[in-house]
Every structure is written in structure tokens, then in C-alpha cells.
């Protein structure tokens, strides 16, 4: 429960952070809220030589609206996002999900960018990011880049982020008006992380035909994923109980499920179906 | 002064704790203090071939590295305190650091002492231990098998003891109309007090005095044991239990690290601190329960129970811990009949060594296991004969106390039937059954669970302690010092660590002396200040130490009265004492206050001839018998058939714990005990791999109950004073862990009745419940 010794520097700007990452040549590690990184350091699973503290870079904080998207600065904390009027107006589902993350102390420190960059397979935001067509804003040695979330998340704790780059923001598509969205979470009784978390965003036409549907699932597998078979099945169909139930059966199709002491892969697969069905009912009926 | 006993007074100890001014072991900082860390075995069973410490010693800031060979002639093995007689017990003592062989994963093999905690941890990684792996056995039933690995050459089949109490003639079972039998598993659980263990040792080379601050529920037992282990006189060792963040039984046990830190302080002549990390706690502090109990019950078709016969196979872990042998034998066996009038009873326990962390007491210690098996068996019996489990309970509950059970325990006070009736009314049992019937028609899985438990507490008469092999007395010591100003300090040999006796004991004394609560201080947990005492466990502090307190207070009043009579110039019989005032009958203007007499006693200017000065009272109270809290608990659960999740909707409990001194603290004890008991029923479980690796070794996997898991607890009390102590208290700390597991399991099994589910092992995790439903639905 005591980390190995490390050095600490604070970066005042994005270019400085990138320069520091370069200087430390793989031995430097960014720290934002520290609520994923520090536990790993205490377990001595991660032993960084130097921590580069980016938490004070003000330009990476805050929420703005750009067209049909909300752009959330990477260093915006959960608590700040939760209290933001733009989030309340355009992304209530993000607020719904944040309230299901950990506890008040963690929400006061943890950041949106940290959550996405860490790519914990049991974290909540990846499901939401998938369902909201999120785009990750990255700045590195060669300038800026925008990577769709599906290309960003690779596997457990693995992302497409280059070693000397930094996530500057995450943008989320504002769900279509008249649409509905939700995030349902099955809490792990020990850790409080998601055993299964399902984010669903949908819209139907006046006569009940589904013309927009996104389902993102976290917790169950090695990496959060989009339940594309569910989406394909439902798109263009009417929102009936039967269609929902049939679609939900496809939730974990072709996806490898994880396993721990609490929940086997069979049970997780089943939970994906149950929670997808419940989420779909909420957004479609 | 109005009476304060029975009032929900806010805890006197809280302002300090909630403003961050408590002083826990890790808060103690001494000049020149060094830090110790323990290198722990990766393997559950292995020979130690070599330990390389040179690299660690080279690390700047490392002061010393000790291995088993270095300390084996300096610290004796730590002896178990409870050597249960008549069961061929082969005790295997914990050794300070393993020498030739490690017997469980997490056993300490070396200790580093360094200038800082960081260096001490870094040095651990530089110690290289060469092991030769040995075959591992973690399960107690597997350990009994013919081909099982044997951990100790002189312990055939890994059997540490075979114990038996009571006898049921075979004919009772042969001739019985109904016999039911069930294998019930008390899974392994881990007490996780908010504060892990720790110790700080300081040695004065000039005087030879060693002081150890450590996390203990019983500092005097620690003193006796460590003085012996370190080979120093008891008078040269002072043990202090500072503020403690809970114990739950795990801090009764006497471990090795505290002695190692003591040795290091003596050798290095600098203070040394060791604080257990949470992961370390999961491995190194005693685990609990882990008993496989198979019970047979013989009864009549109309619901009368004739006999009960329980066989317990208990996993002791790799060593015999402090109370390791007593918990699954005496503590369990004497209570197998529960609150029922059952003519014949028999209990047998086999204690088994395995390659796991040693097991020991855990809130309730043995009684929850006894209660769980009888309360489950009653429901299984009820199901078999098609009778409402409440009716079976009514038919068999003890009708009248005092009552002596088949094992010889004397249930002390209260109305068992009346208590059940009150609980049934509180939850509206009749209405609830109807609601359940309706719910079932709609496919909803509503379940009702009940337990009418009784437990043995208030340990206890020292004669009995001797007879059952307990290596000490079980009396308790309380003394009261009245200072010249009339302020009062209470000293007790019990060692509360969160239970609130700093408040409840002050309430007792406030009423006895008629003085304000603010005038009373409370001291415990220091072997230099308190002559002797046996500690806090087994719900004994209020019944036993509180008994001593009450007697000590009476002694003071008695003396004060003589002084008052002397000063007032009247015969003693004419003096009355009430609400802090000594007055003369029929002459109310002639009086002395308690404060005035305190000053008189202390200045000694004018005392009766022959009277010694000062005003202090002490009592060493040895109770004539145990106390027996009991109660009726009923809950309602609903199972989600899609996920198997169990929702606890209501929990009603009516507890008769004797006289209640502070109802708010009493209720807090009930809530905490229930959270722990329900935690065992639904979430908590310690899991080992076949190789003896603890898989549930962090809070990511080991599910502690959280506040949000619970509904509002509907708790009420009945107060039937116990006749065996002056306060009439029966103990309340362990009611929840004793009652709740069976209440919850009975409810979930009841909820699953439509699927024909008869039993499921704890914890009833959603997947387990879902599978039970799923398998049955597929079969239909
Ligand atoms: C008790 C507890 C409970 C929790 N429960 C939940 C839960 O229920 N659900 C959940 O989703 N999460 C949970 N978390 C995790 C929490 O949400 C983390 O705060 C979050 O995942 C990471 O954000 P952070 O700012 O703390 O990142 P840090 O811990 O600072 O960093 C995490 C990783 O991301 C990298 N990183 C951080 N920011 C950037 C950036 N801008 N660019 C590039 N790399 C970056 C770091 O280098 C590091 O590798 C819990 C944490 C704790 C301590």
C-alpha cells in the first residue's frame, strides 16, 4: 500500500506536458485526478519514474457546445461536469451516468479525460462514449488529432493514444431531439464498478419506427463495446416489446465475456441481455 | 440530577474521533522511530531453501533484516490461549518468522527495519527467498482425505482435535417419525475493521522497560503472551491499546508481528513501528468461520423436535490461533439446540489444519454458527412436514426461563414466546403471508425469513473458563477514582474499541453518584494504569466489567455515606443518598453534596476514627454464570428472477438484551451486527485457489456491506434484566451476526419455493440465485 519512490513535476500547459513526456522517454506518466493511477501505484502494479501533473492546466477544463456536440475538456472533473448547465441541458444522460460513478470524493477528483484515457474495462464512461459517438481530442508532438472512441479503445487499459500525446477533450454527440437516452448499471458489490453497464440512445419516428439507435456496453468484456447487432436488428423496425426482447438477445453476440469471483462469463452474457432489454425499454417505449 | 441510564445520550468519545483528533496506533510518532515491514510468503506450502538478504541490507536507510533463523531463539512461538481439553488437541503455535517451511500464503518469512516506510517497502522487493513448493490443501474436507498432503508430520490426517459434547441415543433417531439432515456451510469470512493492525514499540535500554502500543481487544492477554514470548518479566512490558478503528474479533488474537517489532526495538534501541497494509491484512490477520456443519434433526410429524445432532468440520488454517480451538467447539457446541426445548443434543467437531490463514473469533464466535444450523434446520423440518416455520418455532420455543438446555447452559431471563409474538405483530405476519401469496400469483418472488435466536454471552465464570481450557480468568476489573474536586475517573480492564462504554459506563456512574456526565472520564487499554483485566469480546464488557463498575460505585457510596453521617453528626441509618445529595431523614436542610464529601475524603481533616483517606472503589467481579440475549428477527426479501439479485425490503428485530443503558448505542450495535450478519449471508466470502492463493484479497473482490445495501432497520427491545450481574445487562454486540444469516437465507429460500429450491450455500450472490432459478426453470 506504499508506492515506489517517484519524481513529480507539474506541467503548466499542453506543450509543456508533451515536452516533459518526451524528456522522460517513457518513464513519465501523466496524472490528472489520480483516482485510477494512484491505487495502481500503491499496489505497485504501475511504477512510474516521474509523475507529470496536468491537473492545473486550465485550458483543459470546462464544457462548450460546438454544433451538435458538447466538448468536455479532459481535466473537467465529474463534479464539474455534473454541475455544468450545458451538460444538464444537452447531455442529461452523462449526468445520470456520473452519479453512478463511485462516491462524492472520487467524483470531486476524477476527470472525464482520465476515465477515457485509462480505458478500464469496468469503468462507466466508455459505454456512454460509445453510445454518444464520442470523439477523443488528442494533442501530440505532431499536432492535433481526433479519434472516434471506437478506434481509441483497444482493450483492457489499452488505447490508441501515442506515448507522447495527451487527451485534451472528449466530445459527445448531443442525442437527437425527441430521442431518449439512459445508462443502467449493475454495480459490483465489492468495487462499485460496473459488472455490466448499458448506455442506450434512441429515437423513433412519429409512427414508432426506430431511426436512431446506439447501445454501448461496459464491464462485461475485456473492453467496452458497441452492441452493433442489437442496433442493426432494431434500426428501421417498430419499437415493440417483442422486437426489443429479440434484439436484446444479441447484446453480447460475438463478444468474449470477462469473468471474476463475483460473476462468470455466462452470467455476464445474460446480464448484458437483461440490462440491454431494460435500457431499450426505457428509451423506446 | 435526572436519571441518565436508559437515555439515548450522544457518545462522549465521538467529538474527538469525528474531528480527527483520535490517536490511533499509526498516529503515534516517536523521535527516531524506524519502520518495519514483513516479507510474506508467496506460496501456501513450501520449504524455505535460502533467504538472500544482502541486497536489501545494502539499500541506504535499511537498519536491519531479520529472518526466522535470526529470531527463533529470541521469540518463542505465540501460544494459543484456549487449549480445549478432552479432544486430543495438537496445538501448532504461530512462529514469529517461518524457519524451514511456510504453511500459508502470507506467512511472514523476514522483517525489514528501515528509516522510512518507503525504504522498508522497497527493501522487501530486494529480499529473495528460494522456495521448494509442496502440495497444498486449502479445504478442510479435502484435508481429511487419505491422499491429502500432510502439513505436520506429527498431525496425522491434519486433524488437530476431535471434540464431542452431549449424547443422543441412536434409538431416538431410529424411532423418530421424521428425520431431516442437511449439510450447511459457514463460508470463510474476513473481518475488515476500518483500521488494520499495527504496533509501535519503544524500549528503554537503561531500565529495560518495553512499551508496545498495538491494536488489541485485550491488552493484558497480549502482555502475558508477549512477555513470555520475549522472555522478559510481565512487569517490564507495558501494552497500550490506543484508539482503535474496530476489531470484530480479529484483534483478540495474539499475533507475531507485535512481538517482532518489540524485539527490533530492543535490539536497535530505537522505536519501531509496523502498520499492516490492507492487502497484508487480508492475508495476515485471522480469518473466521469456515465450518462445514452437517446437522440431523429428529422430530414428530406434528412439529415437535426430539433431538439434534451436529457434526462440524472446522478449518483452523495453518496454525492454532488464540481462540481457534474454542470457537468451533465450546462456543458452537453448547448452543446447538438454540432457543428450543430439545431433549437430546450432540455436537462433534473435528478441527483441521490447512494451508490457509489461521481462523479465529469473529463477532459472535461459534454462536452464529450454532444459531445458523438450528434456524436453517427448523425451516427444513417445517418444509418437510408441511408446517409454517413460525408454528414449528412456537411449538418448540423454551416455554419458561430459567431453563437449562441439553448441554447444561442456563438461559437466564425473558419471555421467548412473547418476544416472537411482538416481532410477528411488528411485521404483520398474517398480512405479509397474504401479500406473498398475491405476489406469487403475479410471478413475484417474495420471501419471508425468521429466526428466534439465543446466544451465550458475557464470558464468564472463571471456574468454567478453567474447566473448558481457557488459559486465563474471565472475571473483570473496574475501579473508580473520585478526585478531590469531585470529578471521577473510571478504569476498566475490559478494552472497548468503538463500542461506546466511555459513555455507557459514565451513565452508570452518573446515576450512582448523582453527578453530571461531564464530570466522568473513562480509561481503558493500558496495562500500566490498569492492574489486570481480560478484555473486550463475547459481549462481556457491560455484563462483566459493568458489573464490577456497579459494585465499585456502591462501595464508594457506602464509604461516602459514613463520612456524611460523621460530618452531619447522625447515625449512619439516618443518612439518605439520592441524586448526589446526602441528607438526614426528616431534616432536609441538613445535607452534604457528593462533591463536598469527595473533598472531605481526600483532605482527611475530619474522618471517622480508623477510616482511611481518599475515595476510590474497585471490584473484581466474577459472574456466577453466562448471560443469554435472545430475540426474534423477521425479514422480507424480493428476488429478481432475471438477475437473481436479492432486495432486502424490510428487517424487523425484537431483541431482549437485558437492561439497556443507552438505547442509541444499543441500536447502533444492532445495526452494525446486522450489517455484518447480512453481509455474510449475501456478499462476503473469502476464496482460495487450489494452490492456496487468496483470490479475494482486496476490496475489489471482497464485498464489504455498504450502507446503501440496507433498508431502515426496524429495531426494538424488550428488557428482561439478567439475574447474573448487578446491571442486569445481557450483551448486545453480537445479536446481529447471530441472528441475521439464517433470517436472510430462510427468506431467500422461501422466495425461491416456487422453483422447489431447498437450500443454497452462503453467500447468496445473484449469480448463485439466478442459476438456481435458471436450472429449475429449464427442468420444468
Ligand atoms: C474508490 C474508487 C471507486 C471508483 N469507482 C468508479 C466507478 O464506479 N466507475 C468508474 O468509471 N470509475 C471509477 N473509479 C475511477 C475514477 O473514476 C477515476 O478517477 C477515473 O477513471 C480516472 O480519472 P483520473 O482523472 O482520476 O485519472 P488518473 O488516475 O489521474 O489517470 C488515469 C490514467 O489515465 C492517464 N491520463 C489521465 N488523464 C489523461 C489525459 N488527459 N491524457 C492522457 N492520459 C491521461 C494517466 O496517465 C493514467 O494512466 C473509481 C475510483 C476509485 C478510487
Automatic annotation (TrEMBL), chain A:
What Gene3D superfamilies has UniProt attached to this entry? 3.30.465.10, CO dehydrogenase flavoprotein, C-terminal domain, Uridine Diphospho-n-acetylenolpyruvylglucosamine Reductase, domain 2
Q: Which UniProt keywords apply?
A: FAD, Flavoprotein, Oxidoreductase
Query: What are the residue boundaries of the FAD-binding PCMH-type domain, all occurrences included?
Result: 1-177
- Can you say what this protein is called? Xanthine dehydrogenase family protein subunit M
From what organism does this protein derive? Neobacillus paridis
Taxonomic lineage is: Bacteria, Bacillati, Bacillota, Bacilli, Bacillales
From TrEMBL, chain B:
InterPro entries this protein is in? Ald_Oxase/Xan_DH_a/b, Ald_Oxase/Xan_DH_a/b_sf, Ald_Oxase/xanthine_DH-like, AldOxase/xan_DH_MoCoBD1, AldOxase/xan_DH_MoCoBD2, AldOxase/xan_DH_Mopterin-bd_sf
- Which key words are in the record? Molybdenum, Oxidoreductase
Question: Which PANTHER family does the UniProt entry name for this protein?
Answer: ALDEHYDE OXIDASE 1-RELATED, XANTHINE DEHYDROGENASE
Species this protein is from: Neobacillus paridis
Q: Does the keyword Kinase apply?
A: no
* Listed name of the protein: Molybdopterin-dependent oxidoreductase
Q: Show the Pfam families listed in the entry.
A: Ald_Xan_dh_C, MoCoBD_1, MoCoBD_2
Q: What region holds the Aldehyde oxidase/xanthine dehydrogenase a/b hammerhead domain? A: 19-135
Amino acid at each position: 500500500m506504499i508506492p515506489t519512490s517517484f519524481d513529480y513535476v507539474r506541467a503548466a500547459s499542453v506543450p509543456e506536458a508533451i515536452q516533459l513526456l518526451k524528456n522522460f522517454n517513457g518513464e513519465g506518466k501523466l496524472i490528472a485526478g489520480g483516482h485510477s493511477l494512484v491505487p495502481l501505484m500503491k499496489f505497485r502494479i504501475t511504477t512510474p519514474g516521474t509523475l507529470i501533473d496536468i491537473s492545473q492546466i486550465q485550458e483543459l477544463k470546462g464544457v462548450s457546445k460546438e454544433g451538435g456536440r458538447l466538448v468536455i475538456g479532459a481535466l473537467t472533473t465529474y463534479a464539474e461536469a455534473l454541475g455544468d448547465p450545458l451538460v444538464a441541458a444537452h447531455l442529461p444522460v452523462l449526468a445520470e451516468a456520473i452519479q453512478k460513478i463511485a462516491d462524492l470524493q472520487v467524483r470531486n477528483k476524477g476527470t472525464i479525460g482520465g476515465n477515457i484515457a485509462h480505458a478500464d474495462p469496468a469503468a462507466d464512461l466508455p459505454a456512454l462514449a460509445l453510445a454518444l459517438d464520442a470523439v477523443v481530442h488528442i494533442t501530440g508532438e505532431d499536432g492535433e488529432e481526433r479519434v472516434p472512441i471506437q478506434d481509441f479503445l483497444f482493450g483492457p487499459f489499452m488505447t490508441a493514444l501515442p506515448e507522447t500525446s495527451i487527451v485534451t477533450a472528449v466530445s459527445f454527440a448531443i442525442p437527437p431531439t425527441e430521442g431518449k437516452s439512459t445508462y443502467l448499471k449493475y454495480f459490483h458489490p465489492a468495487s462499485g464498478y460496473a459488472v455490466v453497464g448499458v448506455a442506450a440512445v434512441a429515437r423513433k419516428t412519429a409512427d414508432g419506427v426506430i431511426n436512431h439507435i446506439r447501445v454501448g456496453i461496459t464491464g462485461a468484456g475485456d473492453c467496452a463495446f458497441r452492441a452493433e447487432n442489437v442496433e442493426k436488428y432494431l434500426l428501421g423496425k417498430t419499437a415493440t416489446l417483442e422486437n426489443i426482447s429479440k434484439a436484446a438477445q444479441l447484446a453480447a453476440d460475438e463478444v468474449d465475456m470477462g469473468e471474476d469471483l463475483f460473476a462468470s462469463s455466462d452470467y455476464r452474457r445474460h446480464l448484458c441481455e437483461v440490462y440491454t432489454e431494460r435500457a431499450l425499454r426505457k428509451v423506446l417505449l | 440530577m435526572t436519571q441518565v441510564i436508559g437515555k439515548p445520550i450522544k457518545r462522549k468519545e465521538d467529538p474527538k474521533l469525528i474531528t480527527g483528533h483520535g490517536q490511533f496506533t499509526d498516529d503515534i510518532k516517536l523521535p527516531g522511530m524506524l519502520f518495519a515491514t514483513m516479507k510474506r510468503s508467496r506460496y501456501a506450502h513450501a520449504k524455505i531453501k535460502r533467504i538472500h538478504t544482502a541486497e536489501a541490507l545494502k539499500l541506504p536507510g535499511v537498519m536491519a533484516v531479520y529472518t526466522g533463523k535470526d529470531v527463533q531463539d529470541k521469540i518463542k512461538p505465540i501460544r494459543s490461549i484456549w487449549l480445549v481439553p478432552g479432544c486430543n488437541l495438537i496445538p501448532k503455535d504461530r512462529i514469529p518468522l517461518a524457519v524451514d517451511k511456510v504453511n500459508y500464503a502470507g506467512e511472514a518469512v523476514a522483517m525489514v527495519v528501515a528509516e522510512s516506510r518507503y525504504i522498508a517497502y522497497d527493501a522487501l522487493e530486494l529480499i529473495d527467498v528460494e522456495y521448494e513448493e509442496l502440495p497444498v490443501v486449502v479445504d478442510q474436507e479435502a484435508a481429511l482425505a487419505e491422499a491429502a498432503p500432510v502439513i505436520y508430520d506429527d498431525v496425522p490426517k491434519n486433524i488437530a482435535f476431535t471434540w464431542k459434547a452431549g449424547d443422543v441415543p441412536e434409538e431416538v433417531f431410529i424411532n423418530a417419525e421424521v428425520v431431516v439432515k442437511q449439510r450447511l456451510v459457514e463460508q470463510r469470512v474476513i473481518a475488515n475493521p476500518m483500521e488494520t493492525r499495527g504496533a509501535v514499540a519503544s524500549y528503554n535500554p537503561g531500565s529495560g522497560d518495553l512499551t508496545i502500543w498495538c491494536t488489541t481487544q485485550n491488552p493484558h492477554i497480549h502482555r502475558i503472551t508477549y512477555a513470555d514470548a520475549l522472555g522478559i518479566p510481565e512487569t517490564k512490558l507495558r501494552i497500550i491499546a490506543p484508539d482503535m478503528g474496530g476489531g470484530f474479533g480479529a484483534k483478540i488474537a495474539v499475533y507475531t508481528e507485535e512481538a517482532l517489532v518489540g524485539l527490533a526495538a530492543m535490539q536497535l534501541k530505537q522505536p519501531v513501528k509496523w502498520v499492516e497494509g490492507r492487502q497484508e491484512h487480508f492475508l495476515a490477520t485471522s480469518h473466521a468461520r469456515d465450518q462445514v456443519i452437517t446437522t440431523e434433526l429428529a422430530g414428530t410429524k406434528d412439529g415437535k423436535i426430539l433431538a439434534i445432532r451436529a457434526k462440524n468440520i472446522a478449518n483452523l488454517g495453518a496454525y492454532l490461533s488464540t481462540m481457534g480451538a474454542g470457537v468451533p467447539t465450546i462456543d458452537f457446541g453448547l448452543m446447538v439446540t438454540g432457543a428450543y426445548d430439545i431433549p437430546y443434543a450432540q455436537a462433534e467437531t473435528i478441527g483441521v489444519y490447512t494451508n490457509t490463514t489461521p481462523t479465529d473469533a469473529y463477532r459472535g464466535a461459534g454462536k452464529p454458527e450454532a444459531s445458523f444450523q438450528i434456524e436453517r434446520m427448523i425451516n427444513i423440518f417445517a418444509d418437510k412436514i408441511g408446517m409454517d416455520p413460525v408454528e414449528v418455532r412456537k411449538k418448540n420455543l423454551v416455554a419458561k426461563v430459567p431453563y437449562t438446555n441439553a448441554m447444561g447452559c442456563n438461559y437466564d431471563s425473558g419471555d421467548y414466546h412473547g418476544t416472537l409474538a411482538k416481532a410477528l405483530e411488528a411485521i404483520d405476519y398474517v398480512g405479509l403471508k397474504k401479500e406473498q401469496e398475491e405476489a406469487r400469483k403475479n410471478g413475484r418472488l417474495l420471501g419471508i425469513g425468521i429466526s428466534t435466536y439465543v446466544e451465550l454471552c458475557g464470558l464468564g465464570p472463571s471456574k468454567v473458563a478453567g474447566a473448558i481450557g481457557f488459559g486465563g480468568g474471565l472475571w473483570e476489573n473496574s475501579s473508580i477514582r473520585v478526585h478531590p474536586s469531585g470529578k471521577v475517573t473510571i478504569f476498566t480492564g475490559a478494552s472497548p474499541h468503538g463500542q461506546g462504554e466511555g459513555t455507557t459506563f459514565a451513565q452508570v456512574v452518573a446515576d450512582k453518584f448523582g453527578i453530571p456526565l461531564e464530570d466522568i472520564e473513562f480509561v481503558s487499554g493500558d496495562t500500566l494504569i490498569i492492574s489486570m483485566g481480560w478484555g473486550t469480546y463475547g459481549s462481556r464488557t457491560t455484563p462483566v466489567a459493568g458489573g464490577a463498575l456497579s459494585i465499585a460505585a456502591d462501595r464508594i457510596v457506602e464509604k461516602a455515606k459514613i463520612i456524611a453521617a460523621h460530618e452531619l453528626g447522625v447515625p449512619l441509618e439516618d443518612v439518605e443518598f439520592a441524586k448526589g445529595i446526602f441528607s438526614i431523614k426528616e431534616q432536609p436542610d441538613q445535607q452534604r453534596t457528593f462533591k463536598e464529601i469527595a473533598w472531605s475524603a481526600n483532605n482527611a481533616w475530619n474522618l471517622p476514627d480508623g477510616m482511611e483517606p481518599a475515595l476510590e472503589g474497585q471490584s473484581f467481579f466474577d459472574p456466577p454464570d453466562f448471560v443469554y440475549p435472545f430475540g426474534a428477527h423477521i425479514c422480507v426479501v424480493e428476488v429478481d428472477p432475471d438477475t437473481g439479485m436479492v432486495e432486502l425490503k424490510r428487517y424487523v428485530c425484537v431483541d431482549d438484551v437485558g437492561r439497556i443503558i443507552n438505547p442509541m448505542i444499543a441500536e447502533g450495535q444492532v445495526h452494525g451486527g446486522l450489517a455484518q450478519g447480512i453481509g455474510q449471508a449475501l456478499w462476503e466470502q473469502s476464496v482460495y485457489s487450489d494452490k492456496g492463493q487468496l483470490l479475494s484479497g482486496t476490496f475489489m473482490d471482497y464485498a464489504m456491506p455498504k450502507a446503501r445495501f440496507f433498508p431502515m432497520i426496524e429495531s426494538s427491545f424488550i428488557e428482561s434484566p439478567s439475574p447474573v450481574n448487578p446491571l442486569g445487562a445481557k450483551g448486545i454486540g453480537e445479536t446481529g451476526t447471530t441472528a441475521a444469516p439464517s433470517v436472510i437465507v430462510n427468506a431467500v429460500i422461501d422466495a425461491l419455493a416456487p422453483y422447489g429450491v431447498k437450500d443454497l450455500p452462503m453467500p447468496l450472490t445473484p449469480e448463485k440465485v439466478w442459476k438456481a432459478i435458471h436450472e429449475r426453470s429449464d427442468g420444468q
